[in-house]
Amino acid sequence: MSSKPKVLFWITSFLTHFAIAYYLQSKLDADFFGIFDVNLKFKNFVQNQNLIEFKKNWFYHDYIKKQDHKIDIDYLTKFENTYNIGLWNVALNERHFYKHNRFYKFQKEEILSILEDELKLFEKILNESKPDYFLTFNPVLHHQKLFLDICKSKGIKALNACRTGINDQTALVTDGETFDLDFNLTIDNYHEQIPEKTAKSDTPDAYDTAHEKWVKGRNVSYLNKFSGLKNYLFDSDHDLIKSNFMYYGRNKFKVLKDALWIEYKRKSNFNFLNNNSILSPPLDIPFVYFPMNIVEESSLFHYAPYYTDQIEVIRHIAKSIPVDHMLYVKEHAAAGIRRWNEINYYKEIMDMQNVKLIHPKVDNEILIKNSKLLISIRGTSTLKAVKFGIPSITFGKQPYQIIPSVFIVNSLSSLPALIKKALKFKTNPLDHQKFKEYFDIFGYSFDIQGFELKRNESFFSGNGVYSNVEILEKDVKNFLDVNKDMFSDVVQAHLKLIS
Q1: CATH value of 207-439 in 3.30.70.1070, 3.40.640.10, 3.40.50.720, 3.40.50.2000
Q2: Overall pTM surpassing 0.85 (yes/no)
Q3: Which residues of 286-315 are buried (b: 16+ CB within 10 A; e: fewer)?
């Protein structure tokens, strides 16, 4: 590259990519640009900070207005045809637009207006910055995923940080769905690429331990919840409600009422689970194991968009398993962060005669080890099944598909035959070690969940409960300097790929 590389960052209040830009600037001679998907107070910090020099910034929500123009449907149609991206697939898998928004019901025209505004913004950003690299993390919301897909289509090198499911390993990939792996190859093909002298020995997998610590940290105390809610109630959010579509329909009374309702539902839903799910399931009978995902999980919305209704997926599996098998369904241990599922939701699962609802506290590994087959929509349990010699089936594409014992559902009508095939397959546990060794070399170490907990404690009211707070430059600098060692591998991994 003859001139300085142009690097475009997607930055949110999560702070990871602000931190990456901060650490990279002293090691990389490049022009930095930033897309900031942040609330108003974080925006104030960005506009006044001197920690990072950005050539130009765009504040996403400044360009997204409540519908104030006639929808240009021809423009949206042309976009779909050019990029082969279905915009209603995008919209109906955005939790703020459909089904999961408790404060506001978006109309068709409002959704299309937002999509049109953001697509024109993205065109503007790419035309003005002409980036060589786009640095982001695995998208959470629709607009971040949409921008990533546009960059991929235009041939812009995306460095998308995705967790691998092993320890604290993260990989920089373009496609979070496949990790850029060729599914025509197998793990043996990829393992051969590892220089023997650099292959690392087997070490205990700390992924579950880190996740449990994160879940515990996210389940904040009532005192923290009260502190966050108090700060929210005494803070003016009038401008935020007007300028950010994720806050449409809110007011102080509604939010207070909703917070109390969530606490009530979390307790009542869990009480039902405690009293009605199975804490000691029989392990000496043949069973297929289905670990549930968290509702509203971006992994489903983005990478398994046609399988977001877990009850319907469970019903498909229950119809397809052999008559001498049971289906064990376990609620995700972190589902309590979102108040668990509704009681009627669990009752619908329990009404299926060949399905047993398992308590979320039952050890996931015990269920995997004793199952005949694991089926998931998407998730790291698929990889763990390989470790224990158990075959698995996944509905959404995953990088683990390069392992021969991981099967993908291509059509629902073929699911019964696929289950029979998988049940007969002999899984090689060594494939798990090979996958781990591959990403030990081509990934990097970063405790992203630990970082999130530190950020919550350092900046946000109520240890993460309320995020629209004043951010001071001196506090950010101190936080970045104190946590510099966390990012040493992160920075080196990015530098290897940016020339």
Answers
A1: 3.40.50.2000
A2: yes
A3: ebbbbbbbbbebbbbbbbbeebbebeebbb
